[in-house]
Specification:
247 residues, alpha+beta, Jelly Rolls, 8-stranded antiparallel sheet, 13 strands, globular, 3-keto-alpha-glucoside-1,2-lyase/3-keto-2-hydroxy-glucal hydratase domain-containing protein
Length: 247
């Protein structure tokens, strides 16, 4: 093969490689959907720039400690301490059978959560967690709530032990969380590891409830349809790549 042909081939391969890398980088941009995801029915719940589609629990807007920062929904602990209003951030829409994917990262000591199937009625329920189960968001190292293994990052909060399945990334790095609900079948994953798998309303589920703090909460997890809520627990936390598909 001639030197000219070799050079041309090498240049072509390099160009293809650069193009492929560029395309992969574009496909991986936060808060976007690939063509494949769109075809599969995924929808973005956060556009990376605004709080459209969300409101603070019991309010019509999102003004206050929830802020959009660098392509993420950030609960700003310092802003709340300075007097900004807080509250859980709730999706405008409700969902029954769905798969939710979220990326989150925590600051040192952060405690927060992703609540689902929550009822959006503050006049009846003072907090979203009174009706919706929670996937825990936690700094397992420094958070005060790290002693109970049912409260570790990724756990189905206070219901399923995550001692052997909770493997969050170090503080400041993004974690991938997944919540799937289909005909009562619930599955949680953190960074690709299943942290909980149970059928809502089953004998196993009822026993989990009976052994938890929710045992005497009459409307906890009773509805098969509800809203997604990002918890204000007073700590810095960031969420992005929030996407959902109906099942």
């Amino acid at each position: 093969m001639s030197k000219i042909l070799l050079l041309a081939t090498a240049f072509g391969l390099a160009a293809c490689s650069c193009t492929g890398q560029k395309k992969a980088a574009q496909d991986a941009l936060p808060n976007t959907l690939s063509a494949k995801e769109k075809a599969a029915g995924w929808q973005l719940l956060f556009d990376g720039a605004t709080t459209n589609g969300w409101h603070v629990y019991g309010k019509e807007n999102t003004a206050g400690a929830w802020q959009v920062q660098d392509g993420a929904l950030h609960f700003n602990e310092e802003a709340k301490k300075s007097g900004a209003s807080g509250g859980d951030l709730v999706s405008n829409d409700a969902y029954d059978n769905f798969e939710l994917q979220v990326e989150w990262k925590a600051a040192s000591g952060t405690n927060s959560g992703i609540i689902f199937l929550a009822q959006d009625d503050k006049s009846k329920y003072p907090a979203t967690y009174l009706t919706g189960p929670e996937m825990q968001v936690l700094d397992n190292i420094a958070a005060d709530d790290n002693k109970n293994t049912k409260h570790l990052a990724g756990a189905l909060y206070d219901l399923v032990d995550a001692k052997n399945t909770s493997h969050p990334k170090p503080v400041g790095e993004w974690n991938q969380a997944s919540i799937k609900v289909q005909n009562g079948n619930l599955e949680l994953k953190l960074n690709g590891v299943v942290t909980a798998k149970v059928t809502i309303g089953s004998p196993e589920w009822n026993q989990l409830i009976a052994n938890s703090k929710f045992a005497k909460w009459p409307d906890f997890a009773k509805s098969r349809s509800g809203h997604i809520a990002l918890q204000d627990h007073g700590h810095n936390v960031w969420f992005r790549n929030i996407k959902i598909r109906k099942l």
